[in-house]
Amino acid sequence: MLSFYVYFVLLFCVSFAVGEQKGCSQGLFTVESPFGTKLPGFVLSNIDGGPDSDSGSVTTDENGHASLCVANGLFTVQGLAPHNGEKYQNMYIQGYADGAFNYTTYYGTRLQSREVLRILDVPYDLTAGWVVVGIDVSDDGSNTPASLQPAIGAHADMTELMGTPQPYVFRGTKPTWGNTITPDAQSFITFINVPPAADAGVQMGVGSYVHQDCQLAPGLPSASLVASLPVIVHPDSITIISYICVDQTN
Fold this sequence. Notes:
Blueprint: E1 24-32, E2 43-46, E3 57-59, E4 65-71, E5 73-80, E6 90-97, E7 101-106, H1 110-120, E8 129-138, E9 148-150, E10 155-158, E11 168-171, E12 174-177, E13 185-194, E14 197-205, E15 212-216, H2 223-226, E16 228-233, E17 237-247
Parallel strand pairs: 1-7, 6-17, 8-17
Antiparallel strand pairs: 1-4, 2-3, 2-5, 5-6, 8-9, 8-13, 10-14, 11-12, 11-13, 14-16, 15-17
């Protein structure tokens, strides 16, 4: 995942719950730039986390770390840069937790986002949002960055949105239209200028990875539970969803 243009990968926003699970899972979040620089001062908080999750906010320290207890099951974490609001978009982080976890996200600037759209010849729409879907293969079943490789052949679609710009992937360091992770692509698919909505559906498919069990990170529930997710899209913000695929042939 870590490469020249990897902005933000892999944390998480959702507006519903599948089943009712009590308690919370302690997450150690790390926020870094695309170049691996630790980012202090980011404020993380639960959104609709339920009574058992942390009700306050936490701020990343000089190492980019912050610890937050999130609701078991599907959860939403909001990330803000209160002292650099002009520099960074807000992020909404969607995931599934069923125990303590570590999570790293690489987060770029609004200027970098504008540069991507300039290359794609698309205007930046302050009233719309972005949805980033990361799909990786893990060689050890974890979500640690060193264990992950792009899930070649995997793809993602947004099912409830018509007439919006098609998604793009990074092939090398160049953004290219498409919704499938090719052999020369990075492991995330980005939907841009998505109208704010509470019922936009993300449908993930594994393409040629027919032997892969792809699950929502970091808790990795059953694939059937999270193969398709409705997400909330916020204006001038990024919603992030991450899938981890584990090879089931061994």
